[in-house]
Amino acid sequence: MQFGLYAPIPMATVGSPEVAQAAAEALGPLPHGRRDAQYDHARAVLEKADALGFDLCLFAERHLGYDLAAWVLASAIAPRFENIRPLVAVHPGLWDPVMVAKLAVSLDRICKQRMAINIVNGWFDEEFRMFGGTVLEGEERYRRTTEFIAIMRGLWTNETFSYEGAHYKLDNGRLLLKPASPEAPEIFSVSRSDRGRRFIAEECDWWFIEFPKEAENTDALMRSVEASIGDMNARAKAAGRKVRYGLNPFVAVASSEESALEDTVAQIFKHDPNPDVRKIKQRMMPALKAGCVGKPADVRRQLRRFEDLGIDLILCKMLANPENIERIWGEALSPLGTPPPRQAAE
To answer: pTM score > 0.85 for this model?
Structure first.
């Protein structure tokens, strides 16, 4: 099993004083000689995670937000990694696929563990319109993304590549820089609709399985995840492909589940006096039902259950500070058979 984490930025992080500081300072100038707090914090957290032996980091993207741009943050930190590979979020409809293909191979060639792309189809219409894009619905949404991926892969694997689609056209396109590995960068995505699942089965290498919001407890959540994997296995087999699976539970260790929950909530409200309630309710609550909060032995047991279902990657949501990450790694993650860490880059 592989383990990953999120780069700590305002959109993806709760309970971090540094991230709260960065958000508070975002609309004004910084003191001379000081960097944005989220950059220094992200570097400290991610270099610690890399030294411990984490496998992957998702650089999420919120264009209309306080967050540093994903491509900038990934390019500033990921080349220092020895163990972690960067997974950079991309919104088709806001980016040109040829430009993303070039950005991807550029990052790929300066990272030891290469890079991957997380496709985000998008829903935030105000953000899309402000940054020059459009949100599409239904079939057109997936047709555009399928064309987007086809152009990237075509440019990565061919000397020249042409494409004629409903949303993109390319005549003898070429990249004079190719991926660092013979295999093209992997494509991750998330979707829960029937059409979205078909898109995953036909186009993507990894599927982040969404937690069912209606699941009342961990056992119900497990049954839903098992059914989702069975459904996707059948879809991928019919398409002549194989899809791997990731899951993003909230992970916290303490003497008990109650204590871990109390500590987590206390940290959220301590460092975020005006926390994003939507983020907590819609993103954290389903992840908290995954059963990865509590005694280390119980967390390890639950992670093994996910592995037995076929989950290949656990993308941990957790309080983002080096001390907490080190504790979680040592008490819950490293005993699960992850290879011993290599020395992080100086």
So the answer is: yes
